[in-house]
Amino acid sequence: MSLIPKGKERRTIKRHQLNEYLRVFNRNTMREMGSIGNISSNGLMLISTVPVLIGAVYSMRIILPGEHTPIDFEARCHWCKPDVGPEFFDSGYSIVNADSDIIDLVESLKEFFTFQEIE
Fold first, then answer.
1. Quick check: is 68 in a domain?
2. Integer distance in angstroms from the first to the last C-alpha of the chain?
3. What residue ranges are annotated as transmembrane (predicted)?
4. Residue 39 to residue 75: CA distance in whole angstroms
5. Is the pTM of this model over 0.85?
């Protein structure tokens, strides 16, 4: 039984929606795991074509367009459910041992996708 009302947001850190998705790869196999749906410095939501194992820690890699150095990190899956599109699944992860690369990526994405006031 959940103490959180249905539809109530549980996370405390605001996540930023991405208009254009970034692909995430399994660092060990270099197979694509999915695309980032949203991200914060503590976690991310992945949109994939297959469900993933809840509780598992995954070695992930993001290769930014035009960049040569990948961003590698570990993330633990906390939930997985069907997406609104029947061919996709959404899964939520917490980032384990975030280093400066993933934090810099989140800050850059936040800056890029945030509307700035023009003076």
1. yes
2. 50
3. 39-58
4. 12
5. no
